[in-house]
Amino acid sequence: MRGKGNCVMATLKRFGLDESVVVVTGAGRGIGRTIALDAVRSGARVAAGSRTVEELESLGEEIAAMGGESYQQRLDVTDISSIGEFFEGAVGHFGHVDAVVNNAGYNKLGPSLDCDEELFDLIVDTNLKSVFFCSQVAARQMIERGAGGSIVNISSQAGVVGAPERGPYSGAKAGVNNLTRTLAAEWASHGIRVNAVAPTVTRSPLAERALSESQAFADAVKEKNLLRGDLAEPEEISGPVIFLLSEAASMITGHTLVVDGGWTIV
User: Fold this and answer.
1) Which of 22, 101, 196, 206 has the smallest number of Cβ neighbours within 10 A?
2) Across the strands, what pairs with 192?
3) How confident is the model at residue 205 (pLDDT cuts 50, 70, 90)?
4) pLDDT above 70 covers what percent of the chain?
5) What mean pLDDT is reported for the chain?
6) How do strand 149-154 and strand 21-25 relate by DSSP bridges?
7) Which residues form the catalytic set?
8) pTM listed for this prediction
9) Is the pLDDT of residue 223 over 90?
10) Is residue 265 part of a domain?
11) Do the beta carbons of residue 172 and residue 234 sit within 8 Å?
């Protein structure tokens, strides 16, 4: 019995993030905040980045109240210098980074015919360009340290199937999926795993606003989320992310895990 118990404990430990240093971008609210909190619950120390300092401060207080450890710094993922400064601060605080969740994102619903260059650039810079440069900075540090690492990119079901009214966004997220495969292949020899999670529409202020602004979008959520006919909850996206970060996923790389309630299967 004792041997079986030890085996169970060892298995459960593989699903944890004990003492890992995990970077989460866009950590102030929504999915990112939930991922940061669940990472701490799984034993990690978290470096949280967001453009909104007040949200970071409240996240830090919440983590401290849980008995966890975190580092917060303002991060604008559309600014390459901000990315470099953030990772420098995180490594300076913790000594290294083991894992990164590229969660920061932005979208604005609208017909592709009405999208101008400024909006296009903002959406692509936030959702795709930032993933590349955050991953690049992190991988350089991981390779120098020689201990491997894990990167999880938050993509979208809109990067897997067509997404009317989300032209630039769907293109950027499809780019994230293929970038994930490419970086996974490039960095596998360094022990760095790179995966993506592609959520369905998940409860957040941005999603709630989009539902109110577009009846077509609201109808699609109701009809195509086969399991529920409603928004997913942030915790339902966070769980798969924590799994992919953990040693339980040690043989998974270059994979896009679609968490969509069945949206993309019909």
Assistant:
1) 206
2) 149
3) confident
4) 95
5) 94
6) unpaired
7) 169
8) 0.93
9) yes
10) no
11) no
The Cα–Cα gap between 149 and 61 comes to 27
DSSP code string of the chain: -HHHHHHHHHHHHHTS-TT-EEEEESTTSHHHHHHHHHHHHTT-EEEEEES-HHHHHHHHHHHHHTT--EEEEE--TT-HHHHHHHHHHHHHHHS---EEEE---------GGG--HHHHHHHHIIIIIHHHHHHHHHHHHHHHHTS-EEEEEE--GGGTS--TT-HHHHHHHHHHHHHHHHHHHHHGGGTEEEEEEEE-SB-SHHHHHHHHH-HHHHHHHHHH-TTTSSPBPHHHHHHHHHHHHSGGGTT--S-EEEESTTGGG-
The 10s digit of each residue's pLDDT in 3-28 is 666 655 456 678 999 989 999 999 99
Domain count, the chain: 1
- Residue linked to tokens 């989300």: 166
Whether 135 is covered by a domain: the verdict is yes
Residue 266, in any domain of the structure: no
The CATH number of whichever domain residue 127 belongs to comes to 3.40.50.720
pLDDT for 146: 97
Between CA 146 and CA 40 the distance in angstroms is 24
What integer pLDDT is reported at residue 266 of this predicted model? 86
**How is residue 128 written in tokens?**
């795709």
Angstrom CA distances, 223 to 86, 104, 108, stand at 41, 27, 21
Between 174 and 11, the higher pLDDT residue: 174
Could you tell me the residue range of the domain that residue 195 belongs to?
Answer: 2-260
Would you mind telling me the total number of residues written for the chain in this entry?
266
Q: Is residue 49, in this structure, part of any structural domain at all?
A: yes
